[in-house]
Every structure is written in structure tokens, then in C-alpha cells.
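Regression test case RT-17, inverse folding.

Input:
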């Protein structure tokens, strides 16, 4: 596929983009806010030179937090601009940085929209987080002589096969990037096989450098006190569509006396759906959003629905064992690194291609256990809650694994600095 054909196909979709926003707004009304930015129209203007980072949603924004804080410290005479694709990503930016950085939506990859974006903000450097390849955006950065870097880059084997089918447009796009900082040697080799040049390997994963908030442990203990301080707590973190029913089944099979299970769906628009599922199963549950209004300890609850934003570290701090969602079903798995930073034993399913090497190394280090299905999940939950020494060994391994893999932020900053000096 050539970029011309890619653009032609995009233009065929242009009339449907408002419908897409309306459809998403049914579950998340914030999709209707700032909609003009999706087409390259912006009101924000800056007097300072702009350092631009694209962080698609919540995960990428949180992963970039240490990097953004270092950029703010090192380049006070520059304006940091974050672009997002989702309202939750934008909300996370506001939560983490307030007015210290500016946040807008990245426009759709139509030539007219990306041209407006680039001529309006005129960034001195652009940074794409993970594997965000928008081929008109890349081409127009090249035309404007704006250095564009792909950092914290990861590419699963499955994604590499998919990109490979697109041919020339991918090869040209990767070659038009100024530099690529790959997380692992495997990611680097897959990117190179698609035509990428100037790839720095073994940069590491920025997510290891995301430190828990200073009050995370305190907030976690307060939550435990509210739920019943001495009871066992199991966390199902960042669950995806279809997994909650499997987790309820596994918890039921494990049959652990007085167990409290916290379920935190990955996407906030699914909170109501999961609440209905818990009702359907007759579960004695409460919502995190209403827990603050309840003055007594909720020691009789069986489930807590984590329907709050920005509290994942609190949930990890409160639990004894964590399962990481997106991995029981073939969805690639969600971020398991945050749990390690708080020394939590981690369970993962068979599908972790989004974090393939991290998952593999964590299992080898004894920080995580892999389960293949609901029955194995139930057995692992039962085994871990019955054996404190085993949980403690996994906790120690998790903390050690987390500490050994830090440092990607400084290496990434050094890469960006080369282009700011230029």
C-alpha cells in the first residue's frame, strides 16, 4: 500500500468520523467535547517553543509521567504539549500535571488536519509513545523538518505481521522517523524487519520508572480498614469485556472464607455493565464511589467495584494478590508493572503479547505466575492465600524485579535531548 492509497481510504471514512464520535459519546459523553480539535482546529497558542508528546490514553500518559516531569525540569523555557486520542487520557493529563502542561486531541490522520496541527503549534520536536504510527502525520513532520521520535516502542509478533501486510506505507513511515527507542531487542528486530532505521535497542520500558504516589500505601491501608483490615483481598485489575464473569467464577471455585474481591474494569464506560453483572450473580457488592459515604467497616462485602479514576496504586496497595486483566482472553494483557512496584504477587493469563518480555521475565524471576484458564486461576488464588511464605517470596521478587528494570526515562530523555540541541 502506498501513502496515496492509504490517504484515499482514509478520506472514504471522513464522513463517518462524526458518527463514530456520537457512537462513543453514548457511553462516554466527553467524546463530544473539543471535537473540532479532531480536525485540526485549536484555540490554544503558546509564546514558548513547543515540545510535543503523543500519549494515546491513560496507560501511555501515566507511563510518560517521569519523562514529562524531567522535561519540565530541564527545559523550563519550553511549553510541553500532550496530545491524546481518548477523553480519559486527557483527564489523566489534567490529574497528573494540572496547568504545567497543555493537553489537546491529536487530529485524525487526514493531511489537512495534521497540517493545521503542525502549523498551529510548530513543535520543535515530536515524541510518539509506544507504537503510534500515523503515516500522514509522520510525512508532514518530515516535510516541516520537525524531528519525530518513536519512544518506548514495542511491537508484538502479531502486530508486526499486520503492519507487514501494509508494505510501502509502513516502511516509508518508519524510515521518516528521526529515531526509534525500542523497549527490547525483540521489538527492535521486528521494527527493523519492517524497514526502520536508526533504532536504539534495549532502551527499557518507561513504565518501570513510574513511582507510586507518596500516599499510595496510606490510602491503600485506609481502604483496607474500610473493607475489613484483616480479611484477605484479591484484586482483578484492568479487566476487559468478558473477563469479569470468568473472575467471578474463579473466585467462587477458590471458595476462600471472607475473601473480598476488588474488580477494576479497564475502561470507565464499562462500570455500569460490570455493576449489572455483579447484581446478576447476586453478589454482595459496593462501589468505590459510594464507599466514602459509608461510615462503618464493610466487612460483609464480597466484591468492591473499582469505579474510580486514578486510584490503581491505591487498589494495589490494598490487596494481597493481583490478577492483571486483558490476559485471560486474547486481548494482549494490561500493564503488570505497577503491581511489582508495590511488591504484589501477580497472576496473569495466557495472553500477554502486549507485555510479552516483561511477563516472561517476571515469571522467570518468581514475581508472577501464569494461569491458562479459569480453573487454574481459582487454584492459584487458593494456593497463594493459603501460603503466606509463598506470597512473601513473590512480593520480594516483585520489588527486586521492579528495581532492576528502572532507568528507561533517563535514556529516553538523552535521546530527545539530541534533537533539542540540534
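Golden output:
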Amino acid at each position: 500500500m502506498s501513502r496515496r492509497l492509504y490517504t484515499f481510504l482514509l478520506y472514504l471514512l471522513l464522513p463517518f468520523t462524526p458518527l463514530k464520535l456520537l457512537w462513543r459519546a453514548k457511553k462516554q459523553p466527553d467524546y463530544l467535547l473539543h471535537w473540532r480539535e479532531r480536525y485540526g482546529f485549536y484555540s490554544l497558542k503558546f509564546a514558548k517553543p513547543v515540545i510535543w508528546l503523543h500519549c494515546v490514553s491513560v496507560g501511555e500518559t501515566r507511563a510518560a509521567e517521569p519523562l514529562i516531569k524531567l522535561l519540565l525540569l530541564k527545559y523550563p523555557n519550553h511549553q510541553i504539549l500532550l496530545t491524546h486520542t481518548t477523553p480519559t487520557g486527557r483527564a489523566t493529563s489534567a490529574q497528573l500535571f494540572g496547568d504545567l502542561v497543555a493537553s489537546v486531541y491529536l487530529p485524525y490522520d487526514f493531511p489537512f488536519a495534521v497540517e493545521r496541527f503542525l502549523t498551529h503549534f510548530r513543535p520543535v520536536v515530536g515524541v510518539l509513545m509506544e507504537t503510534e504510527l500515523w503515516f500522514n502525520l509522520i510525512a508532514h513532520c518530515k516535510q516541516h523538518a520537525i524531528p519525530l521520535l518513536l519512544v518506548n516502542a514495542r511491537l508484538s509478533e502479531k502486530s508486526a505481521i499486520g503492519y507487514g501486510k501494509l508494505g510501502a506505507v509502513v516502511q516509508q513511515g518508519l524510515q521518516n522517523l528521526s529515531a526509534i527507542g525500542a523497549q527490547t531487542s525483540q521489538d527492535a528486530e521486528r521494527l527493523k524487519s519492517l524497514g526502520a532505521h536508526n533504532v536504539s535497542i534495549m532502551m527499557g520500558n518507561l513504565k518501570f520508572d513510574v513511582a507510586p504516589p507518596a500516599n499510595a500505601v496510606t490510602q491503600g491501608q485506609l481502604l483496607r480498614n474500610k473493607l475489613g483490615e484483616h480479611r484477605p483481598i484479591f484484586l482483578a485489575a484492568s479487566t476487559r469485556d468478558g473477563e469479569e464473569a470468568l473472575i467471578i467464577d474463579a473466585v467462587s471455585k477458590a471458595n476462600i472464607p471472607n475473601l473480598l474481591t476488588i474488580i477494576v474494569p479497564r475502561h470507565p464506560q464499562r462500570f455500569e455493565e460490570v455493576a449489572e453483572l455483579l447484581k446478576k450473580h447476586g453478589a454482595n457488592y459496593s462501589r468505590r464511589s459510594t464507599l466514602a459515604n459509608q461510615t462503618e467497616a464493610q466487612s460483609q462485602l464480597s466484591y468492591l467495584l473499582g469505579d474510580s479514576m486514578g486510584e490503581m496504586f491505591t487498589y494495589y496497595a490494598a490487596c494481597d494478590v493481583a490478577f492483571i486483566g486483558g490476559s485471560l482472553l486474547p486481548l494482549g494483557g494490561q500493564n503488570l508493572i505497577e503491581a511489582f512496584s508495590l511488591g504484589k504477587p501477580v497472576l496473569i493469563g495466557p495472553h500477554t503479547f502486549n507485555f510479552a518480555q516483561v511477563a516472561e521475565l517476571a515469571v522467570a524471576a518468581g514475581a508472577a505466575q501464569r494461569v491458562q484458564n479459569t480453573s487454574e486461576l481459582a487454584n492459584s488464588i487458593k494456593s497463594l492465600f493459603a501460603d503466606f511464605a509463598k506470597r512473601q517470596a513473590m512480593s520480594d521478587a516483585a520489588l527486586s524485579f521492579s528495581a532492576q528494570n528502572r532507568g528507561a526515562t533517563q535514556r529516553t530523555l538523552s535521546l530527545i535531548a539530541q534533537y533539542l540541541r540540534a
